[in-house]
């Protein structure tokens, strides 16, 4: 197993940054020895969250951190933006709800893809923290 | 401007050029550049002459850094230097040489000029002519850097256009069967283009089945899924059934976790199984050749 790499912060300003961020997420998880299914799930989750940033807030950032201890290792991704915020979190987390004509699967789906999911939102700061974990 | 600089430029020009090009043909001892590719010599020679003309003109006009509108002068110098620098940078990119080598060549010329200047000066070299020469080369280095970056940006945008054009072929697999292999990132712009191409081809070939192969799509998230669904719906309206192929095991797992359902779309793990399915729908099959009768 590799030692944790330093945290990586990726500015999310355009559609290209979505690709950069999910690619980075996949690389970090591959480096820590997560299987392909886990890598794909994390990359897809990052793709969803960063796409939301572009779509609803215009720009934001994505921070990828690796952690390792005696019990195992984990990757934490924090996606932040300073957009208008989500007025009704419960509704946004319900399947099939979308304000933009999408499938309404992004947030609830992302929550099912990862081991840990935490969201907070107010006007001016929306932060979603997700992580996947693997026992040693 | 000290007379020595213009004298040096006038009388020792050929010698300087020869010295410069000779030294560029091998890797510098301090590692600031590796040997210049033979095809770079011509652009370098051209640049040298333009640069000397510029320096000479400036020297004859007795321009000093502080007084004589350096900005206007810089613009003139930049305009004159742009064509040879551009050519040099383009050659360097074509030969896949590094920009730092090119900068190394230019700064080495500065070094030679200084050396010649000091060697020729009878009395102490004037401070402002040193400053001025230094400033000139700083400008040139900056300009070279900008040109190289512009060149690279142009390459990148050209490449993304050609990738965009290349990556959405609609292939006629068999009579009434089309194949759409999707490769790479599917954003809204590409999705629209893909749908356009496909619908046109379906109408043209009266396709009854379209095989959409997703093997080359790295991530299928909700946005990509939605684009694919819309393409499928539009194809159906034109009377073509769709067979999806090439979703990886982890991709399938991710899609179900996300809660995306492709409903009643036919899906097969491999392109091979998808083609078999498409043939079946159109009432055809691939069979071994019978032994030909004598």
Given the helix and strand composition of chain B, which structural class is it? alpha/beta
Number of helices of chain B: 10
What fold name stands as the CATH topology of the largest domain in chain B?
Answer: Globin-like
Given helix and strand content, the structural type of chain A is: alpha+beta
Mean pLDDT of chain A: 90
List keywords for this structure.
heterodimer; A: 136 residues; alpha+beta; Heat Shock Protein 90; 4 helices; 31% strand; B: 294 residues; alpha/beta; Globin-like; Transcription Regulator spoIIAA; five-stranded mixed beta sheet; 9% strand; elongated
Question: How would you explain this protein's 3D organization?
Answer:
The complex is a heterodimer of chains A (136) and B (294). With 136 residues, chain A is an alpha+beta fold. Chain A has a single domain, classed as Histidine kinase-like ATPase, C-terminal domain (Heat Shock Protein 90), CATH 3.30.565.10. Chain A has four helices and five strands. Chain A has helices at residues 15-31, 36-57, 89-92, 106-113; strands spanning 8-12, 60-68, 72-81, 116-122, 125-135. In chain A, a hairpin with a 2-residue loop joins strand 4 (116-122) and strand 5 (125-135). The longest helix of chain A is centred in the middle third of the chain and has 22 residues, at 36-57. Chain A starts with 7 loop residues before the first strand and ends with a strand. Chain B is an alpha/beta fold and 294 residues long. Chain B is elongated. The mean pLDDT of chain B is 83. Chain B has helices at residues 3-11, 13-24, 38-60, 70-94, 99-120, 127-166, 188-205, 222-237, 249-258, 271-281, and strands at 171-174, 177-183, 209-216, 241-245, 266-268. Chain B has a five-stranded mixed β-sheet, sandwiched between helices. In chain B, helix 1 crosses helix 5 (99-120) and helix 5 (99-120) runs antiparallel to helix 6 (127-166). Chain B has two domains: 3-164, Globin-like (Orthogonal Bundle), CATH 1.10.490; 171-281, Transcription Regulator spoIIAA. Chain B contains ten helices and five strands.
